[in-house]
Design goal:
The complex is a heterodimer of chains A (410) and B (233).
Chain A: H1 3-13, H2 15-64, E1 68-72, H3 77-83, E2 90-91, H4 93-100, E3 107-120, E4 125-132, E5 155-158, H5 160-165, E6 173-176, E7 179-186, E8 197-201, H6 202-208, E9 214-215, E10 217-222, H7 230-242, E11 246-250, H8 254-305, H9 307-315, H10 320-357, H11 373-399, H12 403-407
Parallel strand pairs in A: 4-8, 5-7
Antiparallel strand pairs in A: 1-10, 1-11, 2-9, 3-4, 3-10, 5-8, 6-7
Helix pairs in contact in A: 1-10, 2-8, 2-10, 2-11, 8-11, 10-11
Chain B: E1 3-14, E2 17-29, E3 34-38, H1 45-52, E4 60-65, E5 68-69, H2 75-85, E6 86-89, H3 101-106, H4 117-133, H5 149-161, E7 167-171, H6 179-194, E8 198-202, H7 206-210, E9 214-219, E10 222-223, E11 228-229
Parallel strand pairs in B: 3-8, 3-9, 6-7, 7-8
Antiparallel strand pairs in B: 1-2, 1-4, 4-5, 9-10, 9-11
Classes of the chains: A alpha+beta (410), B alpha/beta (233).
The structure holds adenosine-5'-triphosphate and magnesium ion.
Magnesium ion is lined by residues 45-46, 91, 171 of chain B.
Chain lengths: 410, 233
């Protein structure tokens, strides 16, 4: 016969005690694992939500283009909104100045433009003429993929509505203000004034409009700066370079709304994450203490119940360290079995809570099984250690007892 | 001399009222000797047996077993000496309640120092042999609570014999047995003594006492008659 057999028979004989110990350990481990797993779930969920918004922003900005306009200081904004273009001009050199500056971080993709609303005599139509050149890269930053292509000299890009109404297709030749152009491309529908805009090379436009070296605005894209007062920040930066010769306005694009949403979602997610962290920090130590007490008390009760047989085994000649082993084997088994089942219950619980707490009814998302090997490892190692520690005192007390003392108590 | 007690005194104090269970008692027991102890209830027979087994510590006197001074040994070493050299049949049997008959008998081997797997195997065989011998074959898987008092007593005896001890201390091992089973047990004790073991048997039963080589009468914690050998009884 082996000592392990003795341990096993006792567990089977006093199932109640064993089950109570096991249940308290399973519950404690499950609570701890659940709290940690929900924390991880929140983290994943945050990243996923922010990721979705990031994606949307990327898509929107790709289609919508620029949302920051740098206009001449003396441009009346009421006129600008009424006419849809800036009548005042400023030197084209502003854009180079900005691009060379080391102090501008809040905007990217500078694109100078000269814009006029005019009547296309040849076609008897009102159009917006936009002279553009390519995006001017910031001298001190990695060049980004440009948001808009330049229009080569002698070529013209047409807004969708205009091209449709005038039945123009790429390759066709047209005359604008007496200058000959070849249709370069027809832009897709954008649902705004772009659909009645024609784009030509900036230098050519300046020549046609007799405004050499002048532009009426610089288009730019704001960086994802999280500050509430982004515009003031951008303006401060730009004014720092161009000395109050310009003003900055922001067009309310979907991108801004999404950027705001992203900032909000990310902040809310972080707040929730912090809440989970606090919950885990409260749950884990208290369950450890509660389960430790429970195991300790149950071990104590068990050892008291077993005093008689401890006396018998001592009288048969078992040494106290053998008995200590026998008495500690039970909490060790409780710890190991409790760790496994508690872990499974914990991630199972987290999985079902995930479905109700993190996933909205209309979403297609499925709750994820969040499995972390380190958590499993720590639980498997730490739980038996803690239960053995909890059972140590009663076991130590009983294993050292004199058999005569026990057996003569009757 | 296998066992030697010299001027042993043991007093229990119960509610500040001292009870002298064993008083200035000396006793010697040699290999091959089968000694019976009898006397009225409460005269200290069980106490004497526990002292011989190193389970009770007398206030004064010495207990020597097989050259070991039992009282000067550490608790752990005393446990080892007990496991190796002494078989104990308690008056209350003291079986482990959750072990079946076979396991209860085998449990005696747990305290042995060197326990190789072969030893374990042979111990198991020996346990089965003893169980057979005491007519418990068909009770092998029963728990102590599921067998009769007489059967428990035989299990306790089988357990005491498992490790082939040098000294067998038996407290009323036939107290609950019928004639036939008593004979089996007493035969075994005699056989054990004949095989160079020493037996100290506590009994009320005159027939049982008559099987012993010597008889010791106790009263009030003391040996009243000088030790009688078989012829004198
Ligand atoms: N643990 C104890 N505490 C107090 N008194 C005890 C204890 N054990 C025994 N005694 C007392 O010591 C005396 C001797 O007891 P013991 O059990 O040795 O008697 P016994 O001869 O074996 O009796 P019986 O034949 O009834 O078994 C008794 O008076 C008993 O009351
Ligand atoms: Mg007695």
């Amino acid at each position: 016969m082996k000592l392990s057999h003795l341990v096993w028979r006792e567990i089977v004989h006093r199932q109640g005690n064993f089950c109570l110990m096991l249940m308290s350990v399973i519950l404690a481990v499950a609570c701890g694992v659940c709290a940690i797993t929900l924390f991880d779930a929140q983290h994943q969920y945050n990243q996923q939500q922010v990721g979705v918004l990031d994606d949307e922003i990327r898509k929107i900005t790709k289609n919508m283009g620029f949302n920051i306009l740098i206009l001449p200081r003396d441009q009346n904004l009421a006129d600008f909104y009424a006419d849809n273009f800036a009548a005042q001009t400023m030197p084209e050199s502003h854009v180079e100045q900005l691009a060379k500056s080391r102090d501008v971080f809040t905007i990217r993709h500078l694109r100078p433009a000269l814009v006029r609303k005019l009547v296309w005599h040849e076609q008897k139509r009102q159009v917006i003429l936009m002279g553009v050149r390519g995006v001017v890269p910031f001298a001190h930053r990695n060049p980004k993929k440009p948001l808009a292509d330049p229009v080569p000299p002698g070529k013209i890009d047409l807004g969708h509505l205009l091209a449709e109404e005038l039945a123009m297709t790429p390759g066709q030749r047209v005359t604008l203000l007496g200058v000959d152009f070849e249709v370069n491309k027809v832009n897709p529908v954008r649902g705004n004034k772009d659909d009645i805009t024609v784009w030509v090379d900036l230098a050519q436009a300046q020549q046609m409009l007799h405004l050499p070296g002048k532009i009426s605005m610089i288009q730019a894209l704001e960086c994802n700066c999280a500050s509430v007062d982004r515009l003031a920040e951008i303006e401060a930066e730009v004014s720092g370079v161009l000395e109050d010769e310009v003003q900055v306005i922001e067009l309310a694009t979907k991108a801004i709304a999404r950027a705001k949403a992203r900032t909000r979602v990310s902040a809310e997610g972080e707040a929730r994450l912090q809440r989970w962290r606090r919950i885990a920090a409260a749950v884990i130590p208290s369950t450890i203490v509660a389960a430790g007490l429970m195991v300790g008390l149950l071990s104590f009760a068990n050892v008291r119940q077993r005093l008689q047989e401890i006396g018998i085994l001592r009288a048969l000649g078992l040494r106290s360290n053998q008995l200590l082993g026998v008495l500690l084997a039970k909490p060790a088994v409780v710890g190991m079995v409790g760790a496994v089942f508690g872990y499974l219950l914990g991630i199972g619980g987290a999985w079902s809570l995930e479905a109700t707490w993190f996933i909205s009814a209309d979403s297609q998302a499925q709750p994820q099984w969040i499995f972390k090997f380190t958590v499993l490892l720590v639980v498997l190692l730490l739980t038996p250690l803690l239960t053995v520690m909890a059972g140590w005192l009663p076991a130590f007390y009983a294993s050292g007892k004199d058999p005569a003392e026990i057996l003569n108590l009757e | 001399m296998l066992l030697e007690l010299e001027n042993v005194n043991k007093t229990f104090s119960c509610n500040d009222h001292p009870v002298r269970a064993v008083e200035d008692l000396s006793l010697q027991l040699d290999r091959g000797q089968f000694t019976a102890v009898c006397g009225p209830s409460g005269c200290g027979k069980s106490t004497l047996l526990l002292i011989c087994g190193g389970l009770l510590r007398p206030e004064t006197g010495t207990v020597t077993l097989h050259g070991h001074n039992l009282l000067s040994l550490s608790t752990e070493n005393r446990a080892s000496v007990r496991a190796a050299h002494i078989g104990f049949v308690f008056q209350q049997f003291h079986l482990v309640p959750y072990l079946n008959v076979l396991d209860n008998v085998s449990a005696a081997s747990l305290g042995l120092r060197s326990g190789s797997t072969e030893d374990r195997g042979s111990m198991e065989t020996r346990a089965l042999e003893l169980i057979d011998r005491f007519g418990l074959r068909d009770r092998i898987r029963h728990l102590p609570a599921e067998i009769s008092t007489g059967e428990r007593q035989r299990v306790a005896l089988a357990r005491a014999l498992l490790n082939r001890p040098k000294l067998l201390l038996a407290d009323e091992p036939t107290g609950n047995l019928d004639e036939d089973n008593s004979q089996v047990v007493l035969d075994h004790l005699q056989e054990f003594a004949a095989a160079d073991g020493a037996v100290l048997l506590v009994t009320h039963d005159a027939a049982a006492a008559s099987r012993a080589d010597c008889l010791v009468r106790m009263a009030g914690g003391q040996i009243v008659d000088p030790v009688m050998s078989k012829g004198e009884m």
